[in-house]
Design a protein that fits this description.
The complex is a heterodimer of chains A (about 240) and B (about 230). Chain A has about 240 residues and is mainly alpha-helical. Chain A has 8 helices and no strands. In chain B, helix 3 crosses helix 7. The longest helix of chain B has about 30 residues. The termini of chain B are far apart. The chains are: A mainly alpha (about 240), B mainly alpha (about 230). At the A-B interface, helix 2, helix 3, helix 7 and helix 8 of A face helix 3, helix 4, helix 9, helix 10 and helix 11 of B.
């Protein structure tokens, strides 16, 4: 095994791998944030008075969580460009090939998956906010959307933080699947490097180490975030 | 929508179900046994053994399954020693590499689920059993394990569904299970949505079956309320 292959500079792959790690982080953060938006919307839909909205929320989480992530990624990878091409052909009459940005595909697909898992977490967070708070806010004459925005959601997010940390770890690890689309994140760069140098063991070990660093670092980050989010609350007696 | 193509693709996609099920069942069974050993190590009196189990869980839960599969399938075959060993017939085969990676992966999660179940057993129940004069083995077998298993079943059910979905990664090392076949048909026909709906429905049905089995086990293990 030739460890100098991991060095930085023209002979080594260190720089390429690190760039891949930055790409992995960028995809994960974007997909996770999109997932929180989708998850909040779906959680509100599931708690809605309207049966139709509840149905939409339930279908979304059941279907997306029951189908392999890889299949969803293939759907977006092959599907978005053919969908856009069909629309462009119908509207503008242009029948050429249109390629969709791999990063956008990655964020859309992973965001959709991440959102399905976030939904349940956020719904649980909303359910944990005590009813008295809502009644108090209503008694103060706050409007419904103000109650949601100012009273319910901020507190729900605090309750949801540990669960969202789990969803983040899932999303981070799911980004490896995006390598099938050719986006140069950790897994893809490791694959290319392994092929070029015929040292798959070294490069997949390096990839594993990078992922471990990311998951370990982010679990510490979320631990800190929980401390900050709970700073105003006395520790429960054990 | 090309319904004709959809109809024609049903038998091909269903042809991948046996392989998907084989991968899932074999790796879950192997992973379950391995998880028992990891759990035993984790709860061991020997600090180094417990640390080893902890490190195992940290590594396998902290890295993507795809890395684990590629590491075993492509990474290990790099060495002449591996190629010369008696394990080579297994390690050159994408099916056994995928099964091994899936089993090692689920074992890490399952051992933590089991540990969670054990921690949820009320100490009073164990003390009561001891006070009744039951032997250590008897306490473990008739008190601790049934309560722990009952606590762990919902989480283990989730893990089963994750495993059914995880078998789709075997398609990245050339196996033609449901996802592999779906990808093959898609790249041949460009009928993305049609094939996605079919393959997705197959996985949803498999997972529905798994959910129902877990619910059944849960009901059978719950004592009737008095």
């Amino acid at each position: 095994m030739n460890l100098s292959l991991l060095s930085f500079g023209p002979e080594g792959w260190g720089g390429v791998l690190l760039t891949g790690a930055v790409m992995t982080l960028a995809v994960s953060v974007s997909a996770f944030l999109l997932g929180i938006v989708l998850g909040t919307a779906a959680a509100l839909a599931k708690l809605s008075r309207h049966r139709f909205l509840r149905g939409v929320g339930i279908t979304y989480t059941t279907v997306v969580r029951g189908i392999p992530e890889l299949l969803v990624i293939y759907l977006f990878f092959f599907g978005t460009s053919s969908l856009i091409m069909a629309i462009v052909k119908a509207v503008f009459g242009y029948a050429g090939y249109i390629e969709v940005d791999a990063f956008a595909v990655a964020v859309l697909a992973l965001g959709l998956i991440s959102g399905a898992y976030s939904t349940e977490v956020i719904r649980g967070g909303i359910a944990s906010v005590s009813k008295g708070q809502m009644e108090a806010a209503a008694a103060l004459g706050l409007r419904r959307w103000m109650i949601w925005l100012r009273i319910l959601l901020p507190q729900a997010m605090r309750y949801a933080l540990p669960g969202l940390a789990n969803v983040w770890q899932l999303t981070l690890k799911d980004t490896a699947l995006i390598s099938v689309t050719g986006l140069a994140e950790i897994m893809r760069t490791a694959f290319v490097a392994a092929g070029a140098t015929r040292e798959p063991f070294l490069f997949y070990a390096a990839a594993a180490l990078l992922y471990l660093l990311l998951t370990w670092g982010s679990s510490r980050f979320f631990g800190k975030a929980e401390t900050v989010a709970n700073r105003g609350f006395a520790a429960r007696a054990k | 929508m090309n319904f004709e193509l959809m109809w024609e693709s049903v038998p091909a996609l269903l042809g991948g179900v046996p392989l998907t099920l084989q991968l899932a069942l074999l790796s879950v069974a192997l992973g379950f046994v391995l998880a028992l050993f990891i759990l035993a190590a984790r709860l061991s009196r020997f600090a180094w053994l417990a640390a080893l189990a902890k490190a195992y869980v940290f590594v396998f839960r902290g890295t993507p399954l795809l890395v684990q599969i590629f590491f075993i399938y492509y990474g290990l075959s790099q060495f002449d020693d591996v190629r010369a060993s008696i394990l080579w017939p297994l390690l050159r085969d994408p099916f056994w590499c995928s099964t091994l990676a899936l089993a090692l992966n689920t074992a890490a999660y399952a051992s933590e689920i089991m540990r969670g179940g054990l921690l949820a057993v009320p100490p009073g129940a164990i003390e009561a059993a001891k006070a009744l004069g039951l032997s250590r083995l008897k306490v473990l077998w008739t008190v601790t394990m049934p309560i722990a298993a009952r606590q762990a079943i919902p989480a283990y059910g989730n893990e089963l569904i994750l495993m059914v979905k995880a078998t789709s990664l075997a398609s990245t090392v050339t196996l033609l299970e449901v996802t592999g076949i779906a990808k093959q048909i898609i790249s041949r026909s460009y009928a993305v949505f049609e094939i996605f709906i079919l393959a997705g429905a197959i996985y949803l049905l498999l997972n529905l079956a798994a959910t129902m089995l877990v619910a059944l086990a849960e009901r059978r293990m719950t004592l009737p309320a008095r």
